[in-house]
Design a protein that fits this description.
It is built from one helix and eleven strands; from the N terminus they run E-E-E-H-E-E-E-E-E-E-E-E. It has 113 residues and is mainly β. The strands form four sheets. A three-stranded antiparallel sheet has the order 1-2-3. It comes from Idiomarina xiamenensis 10-D-4.
Amino acid sequence: MSIPACPQCQSEYAYEDGQLLICPECGHEWSPSEVAAQAESDQPVIRDAVGHVLADGDTVTVIKDLKIKGSSSVVKVGTKVKNIRLVDGDHDIDCKIDGIGAMKLKSEFVKKA
């Protein structure tokens, strides 16, 4: 098992001392379970316009007409989008809409179906 880098100064010289990991450069001491729990909580929770938590593979419904940049097409209210994928960024939903193709949506313009 490799010892992870120090979460405070990113030093690669951390060593194990009993139940704790210690960084010789900055003196930081931490538990490996603390780092794992913190990594899980760092992932942002993406919510729809109503407040429901979204997950990969969900089906959502568009709640507002959305103009598509560079095109005269519009995604109409009530359009169902199946099998969404959550991504990082301003437009946090990656999906494929029938008749339009692949595109990214903002979670504030959809609700969970």
